[in-house]
Amino acid sequence: MNIEKNVFKAKFINRPNRFQAYIYKDEEEMMVHVPNTGRCREILIPGASIILREENNPTRKTKFDLIGGYKGERFINIDSQIPNKVVDEALKLKKIKALSRFDVIEREKTFGNSRFDFRLKKGEEEYYLEVKGVTLEENGRSMFPDAPTERGRKHLLELVEVIKSGRGAGVLFLIQMDGVEYFTPHDEMDKAFGEALRFAKANGVEVFAYDCWVSETFITLKGEIKVIL
Asked: Which of 33, 127, 128, 224 is least surrounded, with the fewest CB atoms within 10 Å of its CB?
């Protein structure tokens, strides 16, 4: 998928809270919105090259969203709204082989106490899919989460309840970069999430990981990568 709005290069200064950052653009210091509640500490470091997306909304406090940054030569998209859009496109194009049988794709559907990103259908068959965006990489290893996530753990346990109901369920980790070797839960950051992911897998929840072709103006599903639990 293409990023239709204007994008600009800038330099990162600091991030006083989860939603705001200060950057240099055209020799001017300004505040921008960060559309990612993760820490992104290995990407958002002082002086790092970053990419802004222009948001011409007069009701906003900031004119730009910080949507990605360079870690060395690798560009990493950090926009938390992107993964669902990429997966939606991939599902419609039948690029996710294990889920290509489904011909009805619905967004933001509730089961039990959770709202999942997708409900897929084929005839009487139903399948709930949760998508997690991954921006953390270390020596070829991609990991999630990069900050503790009780909400993410609960999603996994609710997917087990989906399985118990006779429906299908899966979680897809969308790695917002390319060139990684495998995916694994970040146990050092959130041991409970890793345990929940292994429990979900053992109880029938499918676990997928896909990397992406990524540029400053484009991101799309690339291919399935190994999951190590």
From this structure: 224
CA distance 207 to 227: 8
Cβ-in-10-Å burial (0-12, 13-18, 19+) of 109 comes to middle
pLDDT digits (tens, 9 = 90+) for 67-100: 999 999 999 999 999 999 999 999 999 999 999 9
For residue 140, tell me if it sits in a domain.
Answer: yes
Structure tokens at 157: 């346990």
Q: What is the CA radius of gyration of the chain?
A: 18
Instruction: Tell me the whole-structure pTM to 2 decimals.
Output: 0.95
Is the separation of the CB atoms in 54 and 63 below 8 Å? yes
Domain of 38 in residue numbering reads as 7-77
Higher pLDDT, 102 or 113: 102
Task: Name the amino acid, one letter, at 115.
Answer: R
What percentage of the chain has pLDDT greater than the value 70?
100
The domain total for the chain is 2
Q: Are residues 136 and 155 in the same domain?
A: yes
What residue type is assigned to position 204 of the chain? Answer: G
- HSE-CB for 201 with a 13 A CA cutoff: 14
Three-state SS at 91: helix
The reply to whether 118 and 73 lie within a common domain is no
Q: How far apart are CA 115 and CA 64, in angstroms?
A: 29
